[in-house]
């Protein structure tokens, strides 16, 4: 019984290195890019600036709540209530998670054929919001350690690290996608089999994800960037049959992993 539990245990590594990559890569590869970039100014406004505003407001209100009205928790050993407080670091980490929204339900209610602009904005905002929240959480976790004091300089460090992490993750995805596109363009023997092409494209995306995680960047942002750029550049170097096969295969893998 214990051995069966060990085998069936859903570990963190299984989620981040097996289940998550197909989902993120499929979302980027099968994204309706024309509508996404056409309304990118609105998506960036809500997804980036809106996430920062939510993070700031949530952090301020949560801090005020614990400052003016400390919460109580029950201690079963003593049978009494004790004051429950959160440190500033814990508040920031909590709020960086709270500002992440799930748009799956909203997207499922919108018909792309009838409301293409609204669908693209909601879907794009959801992806951007998740990306910003992940980078924000990693940045806060890194620069607000338990041994460090939170000062005014910490705010600038968090902002600089956020920008550095975001740009580096996107850059890693760009390198992986452009390398894949160049290989498919110059090595035409790779395009003789749809199976080989599909596997080749996904391996380059997964390779970028692994390198990003290896250098402590955001692998999710890298993989999403890789999927979007591969669909825009590498897709045109695929054989006609593989152009359909890759979209269907990645969509199926992503749906199965989800």
Describe the fold and architecture.
It is built from eleven helices and two strands. Strand 1 and strand 2 form a beta hairpin. The chain is mainly alpha-helical. Strands 1-2 form a two-stranded antiparallel ribbon. The mean pLDDT is 80. 74% of the residues lie in helices and 4% in strands. This is Cation/H+ exchanger transmembrane domain-containing protein. One of its GO terms (biological process) is regulation of intracellular pH. Its main location: membrane. It is a multi-pass membrane protein.
Question: Which structural category fits the helices and strands?
Answer: mainly alpha
Biggest sheet strand order reads: 1-2
Output mean pLDDT.
Answer: 80
Number of discrete domains? 2
The number of distinct β-strands equals 2
In oligomeric terms, what are we looking at? single chain
Alpha-carbon distance between the termini?
Answer: 27 Å
- Biggest sheet layout: 2 strands, antiparallel
């Amino acid at each position: 019984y214990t051995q069966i539990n060990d085998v069936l245990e859903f570990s963190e590594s299984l989620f981040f290195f097996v289940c998550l990559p197909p989902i993120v890569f499929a979302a980027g590869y099968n994204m309706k890019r024309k509508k996404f970039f056409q309304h990118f100014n609105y998506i960036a406004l809500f997804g980036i600036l809106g996430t920062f505003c939510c993070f700031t407001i949530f952090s301020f209100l949560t801090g005020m709540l614990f400052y003016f009205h400390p919460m109580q928790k029950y201690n079963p050993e003593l049978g009494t209530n004790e004051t429950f407080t959160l440190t500033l670091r814990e508040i920031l980490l909590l709020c960086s998670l709270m500002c992440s929204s799930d748009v799956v339900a909203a997207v499922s209610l919108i018909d792309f054929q009838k409301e293409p602009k609204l669908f693209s904005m909601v879907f794009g905002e959801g992806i951007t919001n998740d990306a910003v929240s992940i980078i924000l959480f990693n940045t806060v976790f890194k620069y607000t350690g338990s041994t460090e004091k939170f000062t005014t300089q910490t705010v600038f460090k968090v902002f600089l690290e956020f920008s550095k992490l975001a740009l580096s993750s996107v850059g890693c995805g760009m390198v992986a996608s452009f390398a894949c596109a160049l290989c498919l363009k110059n090595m035409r023997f790779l395009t003789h089999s749809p199976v080989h092409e599909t596997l080749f494209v996904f391996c380059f995306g997964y390779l970028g994800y692994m390198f990003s995680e290896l250098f402590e960047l955001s692998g999710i942002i890298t993989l999403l960037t890789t999927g979007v750029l591969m669909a825009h550049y590498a897709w045109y170097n695929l054989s006609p049959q593989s152009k359909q096969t890759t979209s269907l295969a990645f969509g199926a893998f992503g749906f199965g992993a989800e």
